[in-house]
Amino acid sequence: MKRLLSLVPLFVAAIVSHNGTKAAESQPNIVLIVADDLGYGDLGYLGGKDVPTPNVDKLAADGVRFTSGYVSGPYCSPTRAGLLTGKYQQRFGHEFNPGQGPNSADIGLSVNEATLANRLKSAGYTTGLVGKWHLGNAEKFRPPQRGYDEFFGFLGGAHPYFIEDRQAPIYRGNEEVKESEYLTDAFTREAVSFIDRHKEKPFFLQLTYNAVHTPMHAKPEHKKQFASIADETRRNYAGMLFAMDEGIGKVVDALQKAGVRENTLIAFISDNGGPPVNGSSNGSLRGFKATTWEGGVRVPFILNWPGQLQAAEYHQPVIQLDLLPTILAAVGKPVAAEEKLDGVNLLPFLKGDATGAPHESLFWRFGQQTAIRQGDWKLVKANGIDQPALFNLKDDIGEQHDKSASEPEVFAKLQKTWDEWNATLVEPAWKPAAQQHGAKGKGKGKGKGQNKNKNL
Ligand code: CA
Question: For the packed helices 76-85 and 323-330, what is the interaxial angle rounded to 10 degrees?
């Protein structure tokens, strides 16, 4: 941390000479892009073949590509709760998705927790959220009350892409608005507008596309473009992913035109792994969304900051909880150590000022499903197996060869470490959404145990 701070005067000097003399302009802009239910194997840079994703691939190629990037939950809302607080969300009971609609008036991201937007606003940033929220519907939970100067998007976990299908509202601030554009394009338009309007001062833009979450709605031109994909769900998925990638390209262009690209840190992740229901592919990973297998929690993870971070692959395990402390360090307002966040500032590791691994262990708990990763080892209890199983991810990323019998000491050590972590957590503040709605939690076929509730 000390060595990182020593870098600050250098980039302050560089920015002032480029942009003028305002002290505030020394702080980088932050663009945090979150995809929804994106398959681990579907981006070009991660081996995807049938959907061109040149814009995300370019962010990856020019930035830091995390090859063991994780999220702390295999579901939309828990992951976002961890992302915006820098803490394992089970520390404050946000283990499951909140329910939808008026029945969930008391369920949302605890108002006792400061969000990333709260913190950046305190640091003088103009803050905006464009896209999906999914951290509570009641007014006190909504983005305008959680640190965002501007909000354009929807509150729930999923939203139709075409106006004729919409039932829940789109909001601007706290007001409902009529939005007729294809939703991904509308979010891109609003993100570009936010950049154009706020380029003169440091800004934080959180762009949480709901692509490629269900419902599977692609634009007609994209259905045509991907007509060679025989499976209809996959064809729609391809169109939805392509539209998101196009949008991200427009956002990067807007930064370029505004003259702030060099001084903007862009982070890109998916909120969880791909589920079978949207036609996604998690590549060689086992499992999918809603499980603690790698297919549920290992995600595309990119940091791109042209002025500060060299293009590289980074192999140590990291987690989305790290983004909050990393971003706050980047803007010169590092989180105090006394806060004891679970996330770690990654910048010293990326700049070569710190060696070793940012985390000794990463942990998961999602109801009865659990996992811990320590070095290359992962101990996991997930849908489809009755007992915890031990895998060495270095040569078994697909979690196929259980080493429990041959590595009893590793097994015991990981189990003990997980138990100790688990003892620091609280009980879930509410039940899983499926139970709230009385829906059946069981899927079928390959998605055995997968919750098929479309409002996930
Ligand atoms: Ca999701």
Answer: 30
